[in-house]
Specification:
Layout (H helix, E strand, L loop, with lengths): L11 H13 L2 H20 L6 H10 L15 H15 L4 H13 L11 H15 L8 H10 L5 H15 L4 H7 L2 H6 L7
């Protein structure tokens, strides 16, 4: 598989989600969001996993928007805040309620330890791909040539330093959140050792 084999949906709602992500994310966080979709879609293609490209793309673009200053919440974990943003965004895009709920679910579940494939293929793929991109988990399941192509087009920039700071701040401020649990479990060390930074 090569970069050009990855299915990248080009619909008005996908273009809108990318526009929102571009407006509010730092360059590092934006590239991370794009890579999250690319790793997920590539893995799905390699393993013949059927998924909804538009739903996964929108969820990928918005999954970390709760980390941005404009959408940070002092009352709920960042992934739940992101789910609320996605629900509101999808309502504005004209998605039916059930599809808005799915976008929110996929974003919330990306922080789970595991999302069952049979129950939620998009959630499974986003949880897997964000783990790949942030901590380097299972990156060897993406062919090295494809990894290099993706990283050349969407470089990591300062994502390791930036995300480590964001998740630490979230975990300190919201210790009962999954971010708090991840920080206590040593996620910043795993971020620092991500093999993608050596590809």
């Amino acid at each position: 598989m090569r970069y050009d084999d990855i299915v990248i949906p080009d619909t008005p709602v996908c273009r809108g989600a990318l526009e929102v992500a571009t407006r509010y994310h730092s360059p590092s966080l934006l590239n991370h969001s794009v890579r999250a979709y690319l790793w997920a879609a590539a893995y799905a293609g390699l393993h013949e996993i059927a998924f909804d490209p538009e739903l996964l793309y929108v969820s990928s673009m918005l999954h970390d928007i709760g980390l941005t200053a404009e959408f940070d919440s002092h009352t709920v974990p960042f992934e739940e805040a992101g789910g609320h943003v996605a629900w509101a965004f999808a309502a504005g895009a004209g998605w039916p309620v059930e599809r808005r709920v799915r976008a929110a679910e996929v974003i919330i579940r990306h922080m789970w330890d595991e999302v069952p494939l049979a129950e939620d293929p998009e959630g499974h793929l986003l949880e897997l791909s964000t783990g790949m991109d942030i901590s380097g988990r299972r990156t060897d399941e993406i062919p090295v040539e494809l990894r290099q192509e993706v990283l050349a087009r969407h470089p990591r920039l300062e994502i390791a330093k930036e995300f480590a700071a964001c998740v630490t701040e979230q975990g300190t401020r919201k210790p009962s959140s999954l971010a708090g649990r991840f920080v206590r479990a040593g996620i910043t060390d795993r971020i620092a050792r991500n093999p993608l930074d050596n590809d």
